[in-house]
Amino acid sequence: MQFFLDTANIDEIRKYAAWGLVDGVTTNPSLIAKEGVKLETRIKEILEVVDGPVSSEVISTDVKGMVKEGLEYAKWGSNIFVKVPMTPDGLMAVQEFNKEGIATNVTLCFSPSQALMAAKAGATLVSPFVGRLDDISSDGMELIAKIVQIYETYEYETKVLVASIRHPEHVVESALLGADICTMPAGIFDKLIKHPLTDSGIEKFLSDWKTAKK
């Protein structure tokens, strides 16, 4: 499974990329807006740090506008994935990007049928949002299970990128279900590694070592 950071904060990206565990980055207009920088400026900064896929989301809602923006994004780096919404125009834009050899990420997926349509359109990635489904008392992980099964059954090449991750268990469950990628906030990276028994174990080892040296 690949791990992506879901952030536009360049300091976070540099920090966790140094661990050697960041396979890519996803961004969106909201994350970029929080940083108070131009989209092009921040994406190019991210590309200097991350060699893997970097998703840059279009602002337009019509296919013509999406294609125009996406073609511009693709000039910034060979590892740019153009992120488009799960709409008819978005799926038409995916097919146009395929003709140009540009990778895509279909975002805001909330149902198996949407994921199926994204795969049929030829999306490189599809991003089901598990946390937002959990927020409305639906089962986000059930959606992942169904998408993975559909893709395996029909041998679609579209990869499942689990998004809107709220806690480490979302990552673990996604791995068990066979999802390809998890994209997560920086804080989840910390929680995946941390465990109180690990911390207490290290403290005990160090304490015992100091005692043994006396």
Shape by Cα distribution: globular
Share of residues in helices: 40-55%
CATH topology: TIM Barrel
Biggest sheet strand line-up: 1-2-3-4-5-6-7-8
Which structural class is indicated by helix and strand composition?
Answer: alpha/beta
Strand tally is: 8
Number of domains: 1
Separation, N- and C-terminal Cα atoms = 46 Å
Order of helices and strands: EHEHHEHEHEHEHHEHEHH
Rg from Cα: 19 Å
Second CATH tier, the architecture: Alpha-Beta Barrel
Largest sheet: 8 strands, parallel, barrel
Can you tell me the residue ranges where pLDDT is under 50 for at least 5 consecutive residues?
none
Give the CATH H-level superfamily: Aldolase class I
Give the amount of beta strand, in percent: 15-25%
> What's the helix count?
11
pLDDT averaged residue by residue: 96
CATH class: Alpha Beta
Provide a short characterization of the protein structure.
This protein is an alpha/beta fold and 214 residues long. Helices cover 55% and strands 17% of the residues.
Strands, helices and their partners?
Layout: E1 2-6, H1 10-17, E2 24-26, H2 29-35, H3 39-49, E3 54-57, H4 63-74, E4 80-85, H5 88-99, E5 103-109, H6 112-121, E6 125-128, H7 130-135, H8 140-154, E7 159-162, H9 168-177, E8 181-184, H10 186-193, H11 196-213
Parallel strand pairs: 1-2, 1-8, 2-3, 3-4, 4-5, 5-6, 6-7, 7-8
Helix pairs in contact: 1-3, 4-5, 6-8, 8-9
